[in-house]
Amino acid sequence: MTKLKWLFMSNNNLSGSIPAELGNLGSLEVLDLASNALSGTLPDSLCQRSTLSIYLDHQGDVPPVKFNRSWK
Questions:
Q1: Domains of the chain
Q2: Coil, helix or strand for 58?
Q3: Are 2 and 27 in contact, with CB atoms under 8 Å apart?
Q4: 0.85 cut: is pTM over it?
């Protein structure tokens, strides 16, 4: 999956924490995990990605957020 750019997993009844391994998807530009039951915090491996847009909302314990780290 080295060329995966967009990963849309919203509305899939996912639960648990967001896997840090998603940060290993080097070409990933958009990660949509909205409308699931995820918990915990965003892994550093995702927060450190300067070109990644992450979409979250109503995530249980994960705060709602839509951000693009490209300003960094």
A1: 6-71 (3.80.10.10)
A2: coil
A3: yes
A4: no
**Residue 21 is which amino acid?**
E
How many residues are recorded in the chain?
Answer: 72
Whether the CB-CB separation of 18 and 47 falls below 8 Å is answered with no
pLDDT values of the chain reduced to their tens digit, one per residue, 72 residues? 679 999 999 999 999 999 999 999 999 999 999 988 888 888 888 888 888 998 887 655 555 454 444 333
Amino acid in position 33: L
Would you say the C-alpha torsion 58, 11, 8, 44 has a positive or negative sign? positive
How many Å apart are CA 38 and CA 27, to the nearest integer?
23
What amino acid occupies position 64? P
